[in-house]
Structure formats: C-alpha cells, structure tokens
C-alpha cells in the first residue's frame, strides 16, 4: 500500500459507520480528494480536530483501491474563528461549498488552492465579508475557465456606450441592447460603475481591493449578477447560499 504526502483544507465531511468520516479536502498539488478518516468520531481520536471544516493541515495518506485512507495529519491553521462566529461561518461554508461544486476530483489547480487559503484568512481578519466573497466568486469562476466578458458585447464584439448595461449570466458577460433583445435567457441590468469594480476584482491586488468601500447599489448589483452567474454554471442552487442568506437576515 503506497503513501503520499500533501496539504489541504477540509471542504466537507460526513459520517461513515459508527466512528469514521469521509473527508473532502482541497489540496495544493492534487486538487479535490476524498479520504476515509478511521475512528475520528471517537472521543480520544488524535485526528478529530484536524478533520473539522476549514482546517488546513499537512496530510499523510494511504492510497486505497476505492477510497484513500488518512494516516496522519498535522494542523497548519485551524481557522477556528470561522467556526465560532455564525456569520463568518456562513460565509466560509459558502466559499468551501463553491470550491467543492466547481472542481472535480484529482484535478490540481494550485491557484485555486492559494485563492481559497487567502479568502479564509481574510474572512477571519476583516469585516467586509461581502467584498471578500464577491472577489472570491469572480476569481474562482475565472480560474475554472468562466472569466466574464466585461469590455465589449460578447455577441457582436462591439463596444457598449450605454451607461446602463446588461449582463447575460448564461453567456458570461455584457451584451449590448440590440443583442440582448435577441438572446434567450435572463439578462441583468448593471451599472457601468459596477462593471468597473468587477474589472478591478480581476486585476488589482488584495492590498488595493481591501481599501474599496462599495456603494450600496454596487453591492446589490454584484450580489445578483454573481449569484446568477454561478448558479447558471453549477446548474443548481447551493444550500450553503440559502443558509448564508438566512443568517444575514438574522444579523440585520
């Protein structure tokens, strides 16, 4: 039985039998993997704390015939604050869920791993959780090959002169009024200012982005556009997003 080492973040877990769990990790060099963690639900298990949601750990894993088996683990960052604060936990769970649903197993993407870690750190350290989440959404979608077209009409290729623009979630970008009228599927009104913010999300560094104070209209537009954009490509709703919305309502 062969062994391999990696490092990863716990995306998901569910119980197996009386004492085991199946853990989904997103790893730096192997992408998304699933492993069996034997006995971690027992009170005295040394691996229990390192298999909690959000935990970032070094992993030693046995290669199995069907599912691999977790042999040893050492915590690098627990991200415990995300489990202790309901609102931060809700945002964090949505981020984990998005990575789990966007990616496939054994498909390495180190840039996605780095983005995930950076986002979890920001969710612990800063208070503008909406800003952090919108940046993550657009960058994660871009890493998966769905970079939105924001500089021209994606149908005719022409520049768009209107101040009020339209975003087509199914096609993944802006459309002019003429093309939008001919296309099937929903389009979303979006202001030019919000489009410029989306462009900054893609090209600016985090030091610059964390200084942004988004106006309320831009927050509303970004939330709607990104929700529909993500939902179209996943082809289903995320329960974690519904949970996040309910927690945000309670927090008002």
From TrEMBL:
Which Gene Ontology CC terms are recorded?
bacterial nucleoid
Gene Ontology BP annotations? DNA recombination; double-strand break repair
Q: Kindly list any coiled-coil regions of this protein.
A: none
SUPFAM superfamilies annotated for this entry?
ArfGap/RecO-like zinc finger, Nucleic acid-binding proteins
* Domain DNA replication/recombination mediator RecO N-terminal: residue ranges: 1-79
Domain of life, per lineage: Bacteria
Which UniProt keywords are present, listed alphabetically?
DNA damage, DNA recombination, DNA repair
Report any Pfam family annotated for this entry.
Answer: RecO_N
Q: Which NCBIfam families match?
A: reco (TIGR00613)
Q: What does this protein do?
A: Involved in DNA repair and RecF pathway recombination.
| UniProt xrefs under PANTHER family | DNA REPAIR PROTEIN RECO
Recorded family membership: Belongs to the RecO family.
User: Would you tell me the protein name for this molecule?
Assistant: DNA repair protein RecO
Q: Which source organism?
A: Anoxybacter fermentans
Its lineage opens with: Bacteria, Bacillati, Bacillota, Clostridia, Halanaerobiales
Q: Which gene encodes it?
A: recO
């Amino acid at each position: 039985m062969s062994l391999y080492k990696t490092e990863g973040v716990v995306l998901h877990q569910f119980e197996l039998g009386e004492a085991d769990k199946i853990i989904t990790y997103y790893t730096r060099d192997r992408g998304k993997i699933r492993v069996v963690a034997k006995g971690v639900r027992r009170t005295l298990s040394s691996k229990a704390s390192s298999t909690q949601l959000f935990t970032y750990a070094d992993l030693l894993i046995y290669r199995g015939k069907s599912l691999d088996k977790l042999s040893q683990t050492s915590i690098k960052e627990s991200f415990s604050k995300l489990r202790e604060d309901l609102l931060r936990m809700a945002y964090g769970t949505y981020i984990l869920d998005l990575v789990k649903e966007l990616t496939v197993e054994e498909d390495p993407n180190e840039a996605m791993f780095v983005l995930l870690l950076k986002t979890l750190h920001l969710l612990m350290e800063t208070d503008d959780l909406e800003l952090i989440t919108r940046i993550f959404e657009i960058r994660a979608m871009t890493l998966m090959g769905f970079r939105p077209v924001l500089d021209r009409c994606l149908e005719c290729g022409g520049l768009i002169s209107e101040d009020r623009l339209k975003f087509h979630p199914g096609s993944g970008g802006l459309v002019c009024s003429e093309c939008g009228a001919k296309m099937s599927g929903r389009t979303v009104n979006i202001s030019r200012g919000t489009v410029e913010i989306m462009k900054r999300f893609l090209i600016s560094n985090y030091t610059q982005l964390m200084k942004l104070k988004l106006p309320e209209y831009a927050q509303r537009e970004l939330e709607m556009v990104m929700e529909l954009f993500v939902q179209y490509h996943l082809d289903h709703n995320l329960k974690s997003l519904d949970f996040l919305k309910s927690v945000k309502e309670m927090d008002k």
